[in-house]
Amino acid sequence: MKRVVVIGVGAQGGTIAKKLDAEPAVEEIICADYDLKATKELEKTLKKAKAVRVNAKDKREIIDISKGTDLIVNGLPPDFNMNVMDAALENRCNYQDLACGPINENISFIDTVKRELNRDEEFKKTGITGLMNTGSAPGLANIITRESLDKLDSCEKIEILVYDGVWSKKFIPFWWSPETAFGDMAAQPVVFENGKFKMVNPFNNPKMEDFRGLGKRRMVDHEHEEPVTMGLLSKHPALKGVKSVYFRYGGPALDLAEYFYKMGLLSEKPVDVNGAKVIPMELISKLTPPAPKYPDEIQAVLDEGMISEEGAFVIRLFGEKNGKKVKYENYVMAPGLTESFKKAKITHESYITGQSAFLFTKMLVNNKIKTKGVFPPELLEEKARAYFFKEAAKLDITVDEIVETKLY
After folding, report:
1. Average pLDDT, the chain
2. What domains sit in the chain, N to C, each tagged with a CATH number?
3. In terms of Cα–Cα distance, which of 395, 391, 399, 344 is closest to 366?
């Protein structure tokens, strides 16, 4: 029987804790957060939960609450990853996080990811697993990428495309934290192109992507982990010598953010307004309605009505197989907003990310991952990936694969 710490019980951490409550292999779930009220509320709804308060800035507190546990699931922002990883090493327990960067320190996105991957030998020597980037994107996207990579002799390019076209009559521009969303969209994306990392301008390379069943939608380069981890691992045999990796995003939320960016409203530099100093990003973040979090809030949005509810989550790989040019196009099929709320009383964003993250946790608590060290899902072994997809299908998360081969 396993004891698991879930540190950070927001939308995703809370989902993981709730799903773990039904796992036969789990004896106790320690729900830890700086907000003790949030952990206490979660404790009331679960049979195996124990609520504790933790200050994640204090490494010793994390070490103390995780003594005698088998796994720490890190649902905190990436700024705390090093502290939580230190606790996992101290207590010789497995580690899982949902994201590895960027962070609010004077360190580049690439160096942030390197710093986490560089702990590989420490984890191997301790005999534990450190699984990083385990949501939907990154996470599900990476494990799908690896499935297609295994079918190629070599890989030229990987494209991960996420289009979110959910738009309600009630003004809800983002279905996750507006502050995080604006920050991500105003950041310079990292692309891995022709074997080298490049920093490009926000909203770089706009073009219309043609999605099956949806039509053409505008997409741009977007800051995300996948080009960084896959670029850093491009020489690994699993990545088949990939030359270029891109993450691209689109949807009405991005369009709104782009208008704000061009107006200077996503700037962190103070602006003089009638003698008062105003930071545009802080003002916009303050005025933007938060994403609905609780069931009654989501229900209110649905009751008022939807304008559009469409989306696409596609992973494309271009490479060679048996001397022929091949393209693998993987469409992720998952519940939309209305269906996600009907099934689990949460949003589509929380559903696909939280459920995907839980499946990685489920693999760890059921000993389905044999590899030791620190690594992202694109390096998971074949049996573990097969288990993931089988369990994902039970949650109505499936993948349609389209293969195109050129005969010359």
Report:
1. 95
2. 2-134+354-391 (3.40.50.720), 140-346+393-405 (3.30.360.10)
3. 391
